[in-house]
Specification:
10 strands, alpha/beta, 7-stranded parallel β-sheet, about 30% helix, binds fructose -6-phosphate, about 240 residues
Length: about 240
């Protein structure tokens, strides 16, 4: 695991975007695994600026997203489909037919998780998986558990995650209770993992996941075993481990 220490969110976002931009330039038909949430927002903004400056061409890029809330339509402003359009897809020349997310409106969980597994595995390998880290150490919506997950599944969100994500909704009651999430096995199969993490509220999760024992109660800790994992973290996120770097 390579940890890149940055000063703040802006520098973190710029470094992560530079890594993704290099991949798109060297492999124009690359498969990107994408994440949502506040952590990658700045990374997407930087990528959009590079596209507008003529540096990047997304026309052959394909993408698979990590997760989607169960019950939210793609045009719901808190759905992850909406997020991706708002922050990236609508601003670059990606072919939307080459972008994939779980379908939050398919309430048949067995059918939807099987469909999405086939989509992800049909890509023949994700070149780079972008991740954020939950305050409880989750990656995707793979919450702390007694085992590491395998394929796409329907997850019951923990109270910590509902509270953390309630900042985007009118109230905690409006946060969906379930999400479809890519499993940890599929995340680990990605050729390169790029995790961005920022803020003091993530410092304990950074310590537990990247400087502690590998265990399913700290889901992100499995990334210590990935042969090509880059963590780009800001000073606040590293505040409990800076003496170890
Ligand atoms: C989002 C996702 C989540 C977030 C995590 C951190 O697609 O899979 O694991 O990355 O909850 O969220 P933020 O970045 O909003 O703090």
């Amino acid at each position: 695991m390579r940890i890149i220490a940055t000063m703040d969110y802006k520098e973190m976002s710029g470094k992560a975007a530079a890594i993704i931009a290099d991949l798109i330039k060297s492999k124009p038909d690359c498969v990107l695994g994408l994440a949502t949430g506040s952590s990658p927002e700045g990374t997407y903004k930087d990528l959009v600026q590079r596209y507008q400056a003529g540096e990047l061409d997304f026309s052959a890029v394909r993408s698979v997203n990590l997760d989607e809330y169960v019950g939210l339509a793609p045009d719901h402003d808190q759905s992850y489909a909406y997020f991706m359009h708002h922050h990236l897809f609508d601003h670059v020349n990606i072919n939307v037919e080459n972008t994939h997310l779980p379908d939050g409106l398919n309430l048949d969980a067995a059918a939807e998780t099987a469909r999405y597994d086939a989509v992800v595995r049909g890509m023949n390998g994700v070149d780079l998986q972008l991740l954020g880290l939950g305050p409880n150490g989750h990656i995707g919506f793979n919450e702390p558990d007694d085992c590491f997950s395998y394929g796409t599944r329907c997850v019951d969100l923990t109270e910590t995650t509902i509270q953390a994500n309630s900042r985007f909704f009118a109230s905690a009651d409006d946060v969906p209770r379930q999400a479809y999430s890519m499993g940890i096995y599929d995340i680990m199969m990605s050729k390169h993992i790029l995790l961005v993490v920022s803020g003091k509220n993530k410092a304990q999760a950074v310590k537990d996941c990247f400087f502690g024992p590998i265990k399913p109660l700290a889901p992100g800790s499995i990334l210590q075993l990935h042969p090509n994992c880059t963590v780009v973290a800001d000073a606040d996120a590293l505040s409990l481990v800076s003496h170890l770097l």
